[in-house]
Amino acid sequence: MTLEKFGKAKEEWLQSFLCLPGGIPLHDTFNRVFSALDPGELERSFIEWTSAVAELSDKEIVAIDGKSMRGTKRSNNKSIVHMVSA
Question: What is the DSSP string of 23-60?
Fold first, then answer.
């Protein structure tokens, strides 16, 4: 499921804490945003966030799985698409 499809499926819930005057962003918008992020900084932020969540969850376990998608590397881009599931 793409972020756009997830957003549309959960739009009412997301609008309870996000201002979305233009609705759910399109797939291309998510792609541009994630392409502009620094991978090292994203990794550090993700680790900090998961650590904070783990501290607040009263010892519940959240399984996190990551995959690199084959065939997603473009010749002009040095990275491929990575997916994380929790």
Answer: -SPPHHHHHHHHHHS-HHHHHHHHHHHHHHHHHHTTT-
* Rounded Cα gap, residues 81 and 30, in angstroms: 13
d(CA 43, CA 52): 14
Give me the residue label for tokens 């739009």: 11
Task: Kindly tell me the burial class for residue 14, based on how many C-beta atoms sit within 10 Å of its own C-beta (0-12, 13-18, 19 or more).
Answer: middle
Buried b (16+ CB within 10 A) or exposed e, 39-73: eeeeeeeeeeeeeeeeeeeeeeeeeeeeeeeeeee
Q: What is the pLDDT of residues 25-43, one digit of tens each?
A: 998 998 899 889 998 998 8
pTM of this prediction exceeds 0.85: no
